[in-house]
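Re: beginner question about structure tokens

> Can someone show what the tokenized structure looks like for a real chain? I only ever see the sequence side.

Sure, here's an example I had lying around. Input first:
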Amino acid sequence: MVEAMTDFRPSEGRKAQILTIRSVSIEIPPEHANLEWVELMATEDGDLANWRLMQLRPKWTEDIARPIAWEFVYTFGSPAFVRAGEIYRVHSGSRVRAATHPEPDDLVPGRKHVYAAGPLAGARVRYVPGDYLRLVEAFGAVIDEVIVIAAPKAAEPAKAEKTA
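And the corresponding structure tokens:
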């Protein structure tokens, strides 16, 4: 007798979503990684236990069988009760760095600041244009996905023309 197997993964719905990504230039030193962050918003009251923020980086080379590199950036603990409307800012840097040398982004009110790096690390991840960020629920279903785009370059000041 053959038993049927299914790939049933109950989704917990869209309890949260990605609001904003702020990536910084790769030239910014790791000590200032807290300037880079992703904001997540809870859209309803509930438990985000084991929900994860995932970074995917396409590797466009023909010699790689699975041309993608990925890692989990941040995982909500268990339990992780949230209220609708709460905004979580997941910084690329560390909480220790935020406590000893805070960046202005570490002090923004109205957000719950969490950090992807360990206590001694300067930066755990850096986002570059072309990366995908996914919000994955506890059973592995992708709830939200966005792509990192290049930050607009600052306009150069107009050069004054000499007149004779």
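Each token stands for a local structural state, so reading them left to right follows the chain. The chain has one domain: 16-147.
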